[in-house]
Design brief:
single chain, five-stranded mixed β-sheet, alpha+beta, about 25% helix, Ubiquitin-like (UB roll), elongated
């Protein structure tokens, strides 16, 4: 091995260090009617494998092609997911090569959840939640509420009639916040 070959290999090594490697790619396969399938594949797998998985999830066998957008680009079935730049995740679309299948072309088993209790949290009645919030809220008198609505403070911000308002400016009686400095 000569010295230039050594440098060339070290440059390749640096490129490999900077290159991101992914153990899988997540694909969302979208059908023309709005249904979609999601699955994980290895980046080294070809689109033929993806097509086999999609065919296994259909009730009927029908010919189709894959494409991505924008711009619309047809995907080559013999290329890997990495070669088609679908790594680490991508949304690919299905284009039917023949008559459009009926509405129920996806296997119904795919719509079943394995354990519904884990997927959805337990629901609560709205009235129970609002009753708890009302019980925790501080009690406010009508007088305090009116003062707050009129901009005079409230909830402990009430001043007696003899107190001086320290937020008022001495030049003309304009009010400024306490943090405002001239």
């Amino acid at each position: 091995m000569t010295v230039p070959d050594l440098y060339r290999n070290s440059g390749d090594l640096e490129k490999l260090k900077q290159k991101k490697l992914y153990s899988f790619t997540k694909l969302r396969i979208c059908f023309p009617d709005g249904c979609s399938l999601s699955a994980k594949f290895y980046p080294s797998e070809t689109l033929a494998v993806v097509k086999e998985v999609v065919l296994s999830s259909l009730r009927v066998s029908i010919d189709f092609d894959f494409y991505v957008v924008p711009p619309r680009r047809a995907l080559q079935i013999n290329k890997t997911l990495a070669e088609e730049q679908l790594v680490p995740a991508a949304k690919i679309h299905v284009s039917w090569n023949g008559p459009t299948p009926s509405v129920d072309y996806i296997n119904p088993e795919l719509f079943m959840l394995s354990n519904e209790e884990e997927e959805f949290p337990e629901g609560k009645n709205v009235s129970d939640v609002t009753n708890q919030a009302v019980e925790k809220a501080p009690k406010v008198s009508e007088e305090d509420m009116m003062r707050r609505m009129m901009g005079k403070g409230g909830l402990g911000c009430l001043k007696s009639s003899g107190e001086k308002d320290d937020s008022a400016d001495s030049q003309g009686g304009k009010k400024h916040p306490k943090w405002f400095k001239r």
